[in-house]
Design goal:
α4 runs parallel beside α6 and α8 crosses α13. This protein starts with a helix and ends with a helix. The strands form 3 sheets. Strands 1, 2, 3, 4, 5, 6, 7 and 11 form an 8-stranded parallel β-sheet that branches. A 3-stranded mixed β-sheet has the order 8-10-12. A two-stranded parallel ribbon has the order 9-13. The relative contact order is 0.11. The chain is built from 14 helices and 13 strands. With about 375 residues, the chain is an alpha/beta fold. α3 links the parallel β2 and β3.
Length: about 375
Amino acid sequence: MLRTAIKNTLQSFEKGLLLSQKPLGLYAIPGNRSFHAAGSSLAPRGGHDTAHEERPRILITGSLGQLGSGLARLFRMRYGKDNVFMSDIRKPTRDITSKGPYIFADVLDYKCLQKIIVTHRIDWIVHFSALLSAVAEANVALAMRVNIEGTHNVMELANQYGLRVFIPSTIGAFGPESPRNPTPNVTIQRPKTIYGVSKVHTELLGEYYNHKYGLDFRCLRFPGVLSSDTHPGGGTTDYAIQIFHDALKEGRYTCYLGPNTRLPMMHIDDCLRSVVEIMEREPESLPVRTYNVAGASFTPDELAAEIRKSIPHFEINYRPDHRQAIADSWPEVLDDSAARNDWGWRPEYNTKRMVTSMLNDLRPVYQQSHGIESDVMTKQQLTVAA
């Protein structure tokens, strides 16, 4: 009996070696864990576990960018702080590390990512690591590595370990041949920036992996995202963030896009909610793997007019630069009817509410500053109060 047991053990070991030698991508470990989907409500899920419910363990790459910390906060409210791992190659602040796990993750290092997935038993990956449009154009070689090679690593590992993966796309995935108003969910794309090319590559590769191997790939095409929590990060739509800082700090802003450049935008609360909602949908309820989502579309001139309702003396000047050509190749209005119909997407912020939220969030920051900034704020608030 001992001899038989040893023989069986050796056969099992040899079988494992053969499996481990298969090329990556030729097999995937099926994801067989069942996670509770909380629907569209983003209320906290409570602090207890039940026998029938298992919470996903989530890795967010590039989490020190515009969206990472906010999404981590939402996921931690729903699934527990120890189940959500923020990661980046940058050193985090104490505030970040005090709120939950933070680990170093270089998306260009395949083994590093693989070790994280195995060690921390990751079930979902939200892949935010990327160079944004204007920065990518200034360093095409690095953009190719981060936006394409990094995405390859994430997708291959997600396929190998049977993970659910979300990778965002943007309006940058469209080009001048695309219909601009509105831009359908499925249409000609042909972007003219390396950023856009990398996003189309991500969309098509994810859909291929889904079709070929059953990878649970999910993707949303975001417009410009307005957030008061982070500073502009090199995107062409970032004028719509900087304008609020300069309005409160100086009372004036010089815009690098022309006054009538219409682009789709959304508030960060809507943006993060859309990620949570699509990640919690059951795979069979998503006939499409890449969706447009949007909030409102406006021009710099229209945005400035809305700001003047709260800051009457605000001035805006226009000095278009190389980013104008990028903006002119992007959608003016996104058609997000597919997301609305398939999984109930509904934005909560229009232009007026976005402006109100941004000003309310940033006012306390500049009220606490000194010198010119403090004087500008005081005068503006007195005018509004009168």
